[in-house]
């Protein structure tokens, strides 16, 4: 079974005033809460520097808070450490560095031994800057935006896994930053109708907006930025753009009446933001290349359980 079918089975009718399973973070009593797990030999290799892993653990959670229009305040850390990690200083230093860097207070957690692999789980608690950004508000006529170019995380992951031999940093995908400044701007404006962060891949993440908003999303191929792959001889750069995960860029829709105002504000403040498509009636996520439409709703990653 895929992870998303499993999650569907866990869903129950949420209590009033609670945003429950299904968005990037839960929301209740004014707080946003997100959780992510990283496991050795599933999410990273025994050879991956632990500081990189800890950075991704924090960023993936903070990015979920950003996708809701919020900022992080507190966190709880779960960690299970096998005997082979005899030198714990670098783990402690990396965790302190993250809490300082992102101004988060570690307020609790749990620590255990494990048999052979290291397990890390982080829960981040945050607050919305102003308006909550959800996956569910996109409407036909809205434009679709991406906060920055995506695709290199997948190339770098393949380099780390020794699938490709391009001249790319194999740890680049551990170094992405969450979109904290943009999250503030989007939450404080009233332009945004839906938002998600790119953790599984553009196609798959756009399909969460599509499903929860009850709309079709059209991604225009000629608006995607392949220039980030300059110098790499990729056979199909578009495949990388639509399926690269753990980018932590934001994908969002802006109400049709606010597009112009939004774009002129972005030119100054957020020059990397680009329009990549539009919303129509219907369902699914389609890549449009001239008159050719390809369904890309499943482009990206899903854990099979
Ligand atoms: P993201 O990629 O943004 O972290 P996920 O795809 O991991 O989101 O999860 C989608 C939604 O399902 C989120 O609201 C998440 O909290 C929820 N979810 C995932 N796993 C579980 C679980 N085991 N129990 C309850 N909710 C879950
Ligand atoms: Mg997310």
Description:
This protein has helices at residues 3-10, 50-67, 89-101, 152-160, 180-188, 202-213, 237-243, 259-269, and strands at residues 26-28, 31-39, 70-81, 105-113, 119-128, 143-146, 192-197, 216-220, 250-254, 274-280, 285-289, 292-295. Strand 1 and strand 2 (31-39) form a beta hairpin. It has a 7-stranded mixed sheet with strand order 7-9-6-10-8-11-12. The chain has a 5-stranded mixed sheet with strand order 1-2-5-3-4. It is of the alpha+beta class. Helix 2 packs parallel to helix 5 (180-188). It has 8 helices and 12 strands. The longest helix has 18 residues, at 50-67. The protein is globular. The chain folds into 2 domains: 3-128, 60s Ribosomal Protein L30, Chain: A; 143-295, Phosphoribosyl-aminoimidazole Synthetase, Chain A, domain 2, CATH 3.90.650.10. Bound molecules: adenosine-5'-diphosphate (ADP) and magnesium ion. Magnesium ion is lined by residues 24, 64, 67, 196-197, 199.
Number of E-type strands: 12
Radius of gyration: 19 Å
CATH class division of the largest domain: Alpha Beta
Here the CATH topology of the largest domain equals Phosphoribosyl-aminoimidazole Synthetase, Chain A, domain 2
| Architecture (CATH level 2) name of the largest domain | Alpha-Beta Complex
Mean pLDDT equals 95
Strand order of the largest sheet: 7-9-6-10-8-11-12
Ligand list:
adenosine-5'-diphosphate, magnesium ion
Number of domains: 2
Order of helices and strands: HEEHEHEEEHHEHEHEHEEE
| Number of separate helices | 8
| Beta-strand fraction estimate | 25-35%
What is the approximate shape?
A: globular
Report the structural category. alpha+beta
User: Ranges with pLDDT <50 over ≥5 residues?
Assistant: none
